[in-house]
Predict the 3D structure of the following.
Amino acid sequence: MKRKIRVLHPITRLIIGGAQENTMLTADLMNKAVVGHGRYQVEIVSGPQTGPEGSLIEEVRQRDIPLVILPSLRRELSPVNDLRVIGQLRQLMSENGRPRYDIVHTHSSKAGVVGRIAAAWAKVPLIIHTVHGWSFHDQMPPGRRGLYVALERIAARYSRKMIVVSPKDIEKGLAQQIGLPQDYTLIRSGIELDRFGHSTVPPAEMRRRLGLPAAAPVIGSVTRLSPQKSPLDLLESFAHIQQQRPDAWLVVVGDGPLRDQVEQRLVDLRVANRVILTGLRRDIPELMAAFDVFVLSSLWEGLPRVLPQAMASGLPIVCTEADGSAEAVVEGENGFLTPRGRPDLLAERVLALLADEPLRQKMGENGRKRAPEFGAVKMVRDIDALYRSLL
């Protein structure tokens, strides 16, 4: 019997997030021979950190994906500890002086740097990195941004290919002299399409469970309460909406380090009685089925997976024009794009949709038709094709 191709996916932490779900689905579909015809044996190595965003560690284990937790692999920069991590990853990746894996495919910024260096040291034949949005962005202090750019340039030298989930990330990388055009390939982040648009709970029942009036207009967002996602802009937007549509409700699914600030801002804006913070939930398809409009207020993104999820659920979308968001949302076709940091304009577009049910339905249907471009099986087939072309 032909030996399976061994693949290791290093990732910094297995929180509930796009990069992490992307990694988990890739490993799961390849191990179960949904894609790849049983030619792969795929494992994940992650640091132990999770956080208020929630953890995917147990779900990874439930899917029978081999998982190594490396205690020293942490998100924070620490030169001494990071050198230790590189050595430990190198030990994991090699055996008796020979590489244990045929492919090392890194994800996230920290694991992307230390993982690629360790893989090169271990002489792994094929090293690939997925850019789930760059580690640097315009909101960073210049010194920190420069450091992250320098680290990305170094790590890129060890990559055979860098996968991006949005063409904008190729532009950003090349603008910072990270790699060459031929080093990049586009593979969109995929979702489990069969879970969305097929809710196991009727929308009316989900509204009842959430305490929402049956006929109320419901705006929904599935997001992290973190600076990147700018949840305070989302609340400002809803305060504008309330002035014209006092019957509207906002449901925010997720958690994060800004939870206390979000709760205080709800009180300050006097909208707490019309906003539901669900915290962490995994029944996202059922929750989305209860929404009328989906909103995302991010300041920067790779390709937010919640947008294809909303599209597959038949929801019109209003979101900021943050990098990869514009890959999912076509202005005027399946939603609206607004400038970052302009909650008033976000509100204006939501109000337009709430006032026009035929437009909501048309945009929702357009999104549903486009959603298969972002399916998990397509994503993993593209990754399989890339692996085979490079090995």
About this structure: The CA atoms of residues 174 and 336 lie 28 Å apart. The first strand starts at residue 5 and ends at 11. The chain has 15 helices and 15 strands.
